[in-house]
Amino acid sequence: MKRTFAFYAAAVLLLIPAVCSAATYYVSPSGNDSDPGSESKPFRTFQKAISTAQSGDTVFLKSGTYDLTGYTTTLYRPISIVGEDKKTTVLTNGGTMTLHVPIKVKNLKFTNYSKASYNDAVFRIASTAGEVVDGFSIENCIFENVPCALWAKNAAGPIKNLSIKNCTLSNISSSWSVQAIVIASMSNVSYIDISGNTLENIYTTDPQHDAFGILIGKDEAPVVPDHITVSNNTITHLVGGTVYTGYYAAGRGVLLYGNYHQILNNVITDINQSDAHNCIYIKGSYSTIANNILHDCGSTSGGSGDLTIKGNDNVGNVISGNRITGDHTGGGFGIYTKGGVTIDNNYVRKTASGQGVFSFQLLGQVYKITRNHIESPEAAIYLWNADNVLIQDNAAISYSGAPIYLNHVTGVTDNNNTKCTGYNCGKLDPPVATCQNTGYYCTSTCGSGNLSNLNSTCSSGMVCCDSYDAGPPASPTGFRALIASAAGSCRARQMEFPDLSSPEAFSTISRPDEAGSGGDSLQPGGFRVFPKWD
After folding, report:
1. Percent of the chain having pLDDT more than 90?
2. Which residue, of 1, 63, 82, 290, has the fewest CB within 10 Å?
3. How far apart are CA 209 and CA 179, in angstroms?
């Protein structure tokens, strides 16, 4: 009997088991773990659903509060964990979920998680050298009163295509060093996207330790991260240590190592003041830091500024379209860089103390500083050890001393800069004025505050909106003015500063009002207050 190819093919197919579609397991506070976990007969506990779900399955939690006291687990199966509503689907009192595979998490609230050890977190990536975590995502979640949302500090395997989007992380604290989000694998970390999140009240309760909002990479990693995007986030009220114990305890909003990064359109404000405190800090090359709003970033006269680029052999970085302001006393730099960089079209205004831009170790590097407004009590622009410098079309204001100070610098092109010394310079615009370098904002929409004559200096589809601070340095305005004018400003309408809980961990602080007379206690709903160390 002659058997055809089709016959054998059919026989083989009969031996292959049918591939089942991925399952969804439901959980409800009114469910029963003896039930099958269907939509009509859900499980009662998160623990039961996680232990049941197989690779590709989804765990769906209906609204309610799920107490995870004493529960920790390790996952080797990629699954999805989805809540019905991020405000009403709550996981509380949990321990760390350790991951060796990527999972997807959405629409959940995590609160009051264990802070017993340094590496406690809601999620911890612990991939080994043979494991690749590719495609992990957290979206539209709330993390409140937890030690860390995502910890991947010593993972041995590569981490790539990871995203954290549209989440709120608040009251992130412990007695150790604190990182709201940390990804620092000893292998490759690439194509990470952290966008649209709000991070607020990030603090250590020990003044000898660090606090970071977003930390990616580390000095000792043999492979540096690449292609990291940090965009459209708000980071506010971060408190790092202030005690020197052989090194300066850090307080940084964003710290990235590596190359080809994008730090765009973030609002970062109110970092307590000490050495090694900044809003943005990168160690790497070929990265862009653009269109961020930075205020009171905590820098002092130590070796970094509100926006800092350091590390070795840095080249090809761009700092553009940022607004950097500060009312802190005690020194500090607006922009502090090492290596080749282009600083273009920024608005830097340090009213109380410090320098506008400080750059050093520029020999053999391409360094350009163009079309900026830079204003500070000390030198607006201070360059040290350079031989190929373009300084052009800037407005440089120093309240005392030379607006532009060059130390061991040769090969300088100083062209068409407007310079002024003293407290009576007024609002001095750069010779080539743009929306951003005159202190305004390029936004997608604008109401009555549109400066139509500057619209053409914004990118396509954007318009120019009015500024929040202007006027002589004797009456500096701070970030509080931005909040006060939020109702009438298109840029501020994108920002939310919700009232937060746990007031017992904080004390109010008083700051001078706009006219410099008296002070006001900044309460929940406006500025948030800093934690006590007592």
Report:
1. 69
2. 1
3. 11
